[in-house]
Amino acid sequence: MPDASPDRAAGARPVPFRGGGFKPRPTGYAGPLAFVLLLALLELGARAGVISPLTMPAPSAVLQTLAELWTSGRLLDHLVPSLARLAVGATLGALAGIAVGLAIGLFSLARAGLVPLVAALFPIPKIALLPLFVIWFGIGEGSKYALIAFGTFTPMVVATYGGVDAVDRALIRMGQSFDLAWWSIVTKIILPGALPAILSGLRVASAIAIILLVAAEMLAAEHGVGAYVLEAGSLYDLERLFAGVTLLSLMGVVVNALIGRAERVLLRWRG
Predict the structure, then answer these.
(1) What's the number of CA atoms in the CB half-sphere (13 Å) around residue 218?
(2) Helix, strand, or coil (residue 8)
(3) Interacting residues of 214 by C-beta distance below 8 A, sequence separation 6+
(4) CB 123 within 8 A of CB 67
(5) 71, exposed or middle or buried, with CB in 10 Å at 0-12, 13-18, 19+?
(6) How far apart are the C-alpha atoms of 249 and 255, rounded to whole Å?
(7) Cα 38 from chain centre
(8) Domain regions of the chain by residue span
(9) Would you give the distance in Å from CA 133 to the centre of its chain?
(10) Residue 2: left (phi > 0), alpha (psi -120 to 50), or beta?
(11) How many CB atoms lie within 10 A of CB 158?
């Protein structure tokens, strides 16, 4: 069979690459646009009288309440303590959960002894343990840190040892065949392979931490977003109530964005 002519080769249509269908593409405008559309619909519904102010305040009224909180200085009085409690409690719980999860994933004895314990602790409603933490750690900051840390701990344990178990064993055997030390295999193969699962678990744990933060502040706190929400709810002040809920939502968005940034930096090797 004669070879293809140069003219035919030059006029051939290139075949598009079809291997990137599961690679997420950056669409930074989609998230803000969804928020804007939702707020616009709520505002139009409130102004048209379709949505009663007794059940849902207009977003403009909530925004005005947030502006008044900022100008009066009360916003920082409530936000700063909440952020500090969230940072301390979630960091302690996440670090402890990652350490225990790695121990379970790497050592058979730890797996045999700790997996049943974690399975027993995971289903316990953490909010129900708040009075117990108050008895143990007092009504101050210690009980709040402990509750948030405990709520963050169990999902991080499960996510971490699940990520370790999901690492391709062929890669581990390849490292052993090259006579890599045990610590080198852990740091260069197992930890990078488990990192996506650890960061996914951190997303779940951070949301749980915010929920427990509100519960802790509702019970025993003078300042904090949870205390502010509880006060507004007891007075049936919906504008202040939704202002507090908005702050909690913004905290979740910011934490999620920070974790997403960490994923882009730490998981660049995935391409």
Answers:
(1) 15
(2) helix
(3) 225, 226, 229, 248
(4) no
(5) exposed
(6) 10
(7) 22
(8) 72-270
(9) 24
(10) beta
(11) 21
Cα gap 217→85, rounded to integer Å: 10
Position of tokens 């309440």? 65
Query: Do 75 and 65 form a contact (C-beta atoms < 8 A)?
Result: no
Contact 199, 226 (CB under 8 A): no
The kind and range of the H/E element at 138 are none
Q: How far is CA 225 from CA 79, 85, 110, 176, 238, in A?
A: 6, 11, 39, 51, 15
* pLDDT tens for the chain, residues 1 to 271: 455 555 555 566 776 656 555 566 666 677 778 878 888 888 888 888 888 888 888 888 889 999 999 999 888 999 999 999 999 999 999 999 999 999 999 999 999 999 999 999 888 888 888 888 888 988 888 889 999 999 999 999 999 999 999 998 898 899 888 888 999 999 999 999 999 999 999 999 999 999 999 988 887 678 889 889 988 888 888 899 999 999 999 999 999 999 989 988 888 877 6
Q: In this structure, what token pair is assigned to residue 118?
A: 């974690």
Query: Which residues lie below 8 Å from residue 109, measured CB to CB, with a gap of 6+?
Result: none
Rounded distance between C-alpha atoms, residue 241 and residue 249, angstroms: 12
Q: How many residues does the chain have?
A: 271
Amino acid present at 44: L
**Residue type present at position 268:** R
CATH number attached to the domain at 72-270: 1.10.3720.10
Return d(Cα 127, Cα 131) in angstroms, integer: 9
